[in-house]
Write a structure and sequence with these properties.
Mean pLDDT: 92
Radius of gyration: 23 Å
Low-confidence stretches: 17-21
Shape: globular
CATH superfamily of the largest domain: Periplasmic binding protein-like II
Keywords: Periplasm, Signal, Sulfate transport, Transport
GO biological process, one term: sulfate transmembrane transport
Strand order of the largest sheet: 7-6-8-5-9
Subcellular location: Periplasm
Protein name: Sulfate ABC transporter substrate-binding protein
Largest sheet: 5 strands, mixed
CATH topology of the largest domain: D-Maltodextrin-Binding Protein, domain 2
InterPro entries: Sulphate/thiosulphate-bd_CS (IPR000957), Sulphate/thiosulphate_BS (IPR034408), Thiosulph/SO4-bd (IPR005669)
Strand content: 15-25%
CATH class of the largest domain: Alpha Beta
CATH architecture of the largest domain: 3-Layer(aba) Sandwich
Helix content: 40-55%
Structural class: alpha/beta
Distance between the termini: 65 Å
Length: 284
């Protein structure tokens, strides 16, 4: 009886070891823009759970890399082995094809909405009571107003800010290029600090107390207002604005090398699901 019991024990142990060996562990690296940390911290766990459910208990771990969108794209071109990118401007994904041949030319057609599962626009975050009476773009070129937003050379967030300001000035000036350029010169002159990314700009405004207005995505300024509720920040949405789409792509060359193509495609497709979209609405 003892021999049979011992034999059964060995068989059970062998079976459990076999099942453990059959279960696979997959890891994805998501290269994303600077102010998306909280969003993907909320999105990733539900997908990891769904992946395990759909794949026989296989585990998936999604790791994040965050910085200014353009800086992130450059890091991939320089060797960062990201499996997927979730950026805030098309040009930072396109460069992965143009400069690195890491993705195909038709990458935007592989997922719905030109491979953009969500979007935002630009917003102003002002201090409690809006003491500088800031309501629109024209208020941002006054001599008494100091601006905070990231460097357009490294941040997609800041490029949208620049383009939105240009568009507002162009509309107000009836297409007079000289007047628009004059507006933009003063606009940039009023920037107190150029951080490399949106998160640094938030720290400068909310924690260091610099600037009268922080310019960022509407989704981001709403999140900052909640995060720093005690400071009583207020959100202002300018009348003339810009549509900021957030494109995503799996990095073909990397997922093939990493053996993560199935997981990468499933992850990005899941961002369009009702479950993911519900989570996204909490941040936008």
């Amino acid at each position: 009886m003892a021999v049979k019991s011992l034999k059964k024990g060995y068989l059970a142990l062998a079976a459990s070891m076999l099942l453990a060996a059959q279960a696979q562990a997959t890891e994805l690296l998501n290269s994303s823009y600077d102010v998306s940390r909280e969003l993907f911290a909320a999105l990733n766990p539900p997908f990891e759970q769904q992946w395990a459910k759909d794949n026989g208990g296989d585990t998936l771990t999604i790791k994040q890399s965050h910085a200014g969108s353009s800086k992130q794209a450059l890091a991939i071109l320089q060797g960062l082995k990201a499996d997927v990118v979730t950026y805030n401007q098309v040009t930072d994904v396109q460069i992965l094809h143009d400069k690195g041949n890491l993705i195909p030319a038709d990458w935007q057609s592989r997922l719905p909405n030109n491979s953009s599962p969500f979007y935002s626009t630009m917003g102003f975050l002002v201090r409690k009571g809006n003491p500088k009476n800031i309501h629109d773009w024209n208020d941002l070129v006054r001599s008494d107003v100091k601006l905070i937003f990231p460097n357009p050379k490294t941040s997609g967030n800041a490029r949208y800010t620049y383009l939105a300001a240009w568009g507002a000035a162009d509309k107000a000036d009836g297409g007079d290029k000289a007047k628009t350029e004059q507006f933009m010169t003063q606009f940039l002159k009023n920037v107190e600090v150029f951080d490399t990314g949106g998160r640094g700009a938030t720290t400068t405004f909310a924690e260091r107390g610099l600037g009268d207005v922080l310019i960022s995505f509407e989704s981001e300024v709403n999140n900052i207002r909640k995060q720093y509720e005690a400071q009583g920040f207020e959100v202002v949405i300018p009348k003339t604005n810009i549509l900021a789409e957030f494109p995503v792509a799996w990095v073909d060359k990397n997922v093939k090398a990493n053996g993560t193509e199935k997981a990468a495609k499933a992850y990005l497709n899941w961002l369009y699901s009702p479950q993911a979209q519900t989570i996204i609405t909490d941040y936008y």
